[in-house]
């Protein structure tokens, strides 16, 4: 058994296991038991090791260990906030955009994020598509020539066995109308030892391929993370990041700047910063949209534009992502546009 497989087999899934690793009060134990009755816990030993003991504000702890706040469901929160099921023509696929679709080969993850927007299904059971369901999904993609990109997501596709990943990528690569593939994964953060030379060889065979990671805090950018990223980059596979704006974790300028610098320095392009979705039980993570807009406004011009992600709201109901941001155009007057610079100075720009 490889190191990453041992990590998966030894995930922390019960309060009793957690209490042997992390100091918990009796009240915390009881609260965690209540939460895990509704939303499953699963923490890889590696990710658990990043938690700072005796620090209730540790950003890793907040993302990994259940909170009693998860049992508070607000009226605006939804079971399926992005309308995945409404846009699902067959099991294992969400076809929301004309030219691309999501394929869920598994709903298992190395660790279950407390802010997960697919918590209605991810973590409930470590389900994987059956061979028959996979064949039906591949057949659907073959019949839809307008689809140019398939995004493997879940769950986490990279917790599958090497052979399963190789077989799936091989089948997708044979579909001539696909231009490239994308994999969304958090194993670089929660299980970096999964990025083995053998896996990288499999991924390299599927180029053009893009990897999108999910890093939310600079403490997640460890030497192990950087080594895993380096292996993939050296194989000629670009790596991007989709983070989530999380209250009390990364919603301040100092932390976000350190995160974006750390990603860029590691060779990872900050791609999207998502507004925390309207999934049930995660309102304690959600900031206002204005907070996100102001945060990115304070970064613009003060760090490289290459390090600044696009702030996105994934619209409730499955209508797609909407980019939001500060409006630097103050007015239109004929051919004269009044612009605000990153330092707040208003200048005129005259169109031809």
Could you tell me the mean pLDDT?
96
> What's the CATH architecture name?
Alpha-Beta Barrel
- List the helices and strands in order: HHHHHEEHEHEHHEHEHEHEEEEE
Could you give the order of strands across the largest sheet?
1-2-3-4-5-6-7-8-9
CATH class: Alpha Beta
Strand content: 15-25%
- In angstroms, what is the radius of gyration? 21 Å
* Count of runs of 4 or more consecutive helical residues: 12
- CATH evolutionary superfamily: Aldolase class I
> What portion of residues is helical?
25-40%
CATH topology: TIM Barrel
Structural class: alpha/beta
For the biggest sheet, the summary is:
9 strands, mixed
Rounded to the nearest angstrom, the distance between the terminal CA atoms is 67 Å
Low-confidence runs (pLDDT<50, min 5 residues)?
none
Annotation keywords:
three-stranded antiparallel beta sheet, alpha/beta, globular, 12 helices, 352 residues, TIM Barrel
Reconstruct the topology from this structure.
Blueprint: H1 3-9, H2 15-19, H3 26-36, H4 45-48, H5 59-64, E1 93-97, E2 100-103, H6 131-143, E3 149-152, H7 162-173, E4 180-184, H8 187-190, H9 197-204, E5 209-213, H10 223-234, E6 239-245, H11 253-265, E7 269-275, H12 289-299, E8 310-314, E9 321-323, E10 329-333, E11 336-340, E12 346-350
Parallel strand pairs: 2-3, 3-4, 4-5, 5-6, 6-7, 7-8
Antiparallel strand pairs: 1-2, 8-9, 10-11, 11-12
Helix pairs in contact: 7-9
């Amino acid at each position: 058994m490889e190191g990453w497989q041992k990590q998966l087999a030894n995930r922390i899934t019960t309060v009793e296991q957690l209490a042997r690793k992390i100091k918990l009060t009796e009240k915390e134990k009881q609260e965690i038991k209540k939460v895990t009755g509704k939303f499953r816990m699963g923490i890889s030993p590696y990710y658990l090791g990043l938690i700072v003991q005796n620090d209730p504000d540790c950003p890793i702890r907040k993302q990994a260990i259940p909170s009693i706040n998860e049992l508070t469901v607000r009226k605006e929160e939804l079971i399926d906030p992005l309308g995945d099921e409404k846009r699902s023509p067959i099991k294992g696929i969400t076809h929301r955009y004309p030219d691309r679709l999501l394929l869920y080969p598994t709903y298992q993850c190395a660790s279950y994020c407390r802010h997960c927007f697919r918590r209605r299904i991810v973590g409930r059971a470590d389900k994987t598509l059956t061979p028959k369901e996979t064949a039906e999904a591949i057949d659907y993609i073959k019949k839809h020539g307008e689809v140019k990109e398939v995004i493997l997501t879940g769950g986490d596709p990279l917790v599958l066995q090497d052979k399963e990943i190789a077989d799936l990528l091989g089948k997708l690569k044979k579909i001539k109308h696909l231009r490239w593939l994308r994999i969304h994964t958090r194993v670089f953060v929660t299980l970096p030892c999964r990025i083995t030379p053998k896996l990288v060889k499999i991924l390299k065979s599927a180029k053009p391929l893009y990897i999108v990671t999910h890093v939310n805090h600079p403490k997640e950018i460890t030497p192990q993370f950087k080594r895993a990223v380096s292996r993939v980059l050296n194989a000629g596979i670009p790596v991007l990041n989709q983070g989530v704006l999380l209250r009390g974790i990364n919603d301040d300028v100092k932390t976000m700047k350190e995160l974006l610098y750390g990603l860029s320095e590691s060779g990872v392009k900050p791609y999207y910063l998502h507004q925390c979705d309207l999934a049930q039980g995660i309102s304690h993570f959600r900031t206002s949209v204005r907070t996100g807009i102001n945060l990115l406004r304070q970064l613009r011009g003060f760090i490289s534009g290459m390090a600044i992600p696009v702030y996105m709201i994934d619209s409730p109901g499955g209508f797609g992502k909407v980019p939001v941001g500060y409006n630097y155009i103050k007015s239109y007057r004929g051919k004269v546009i009044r612009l605000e610079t990153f330092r707040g100075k208003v200048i005129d720009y005259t169109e031809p």
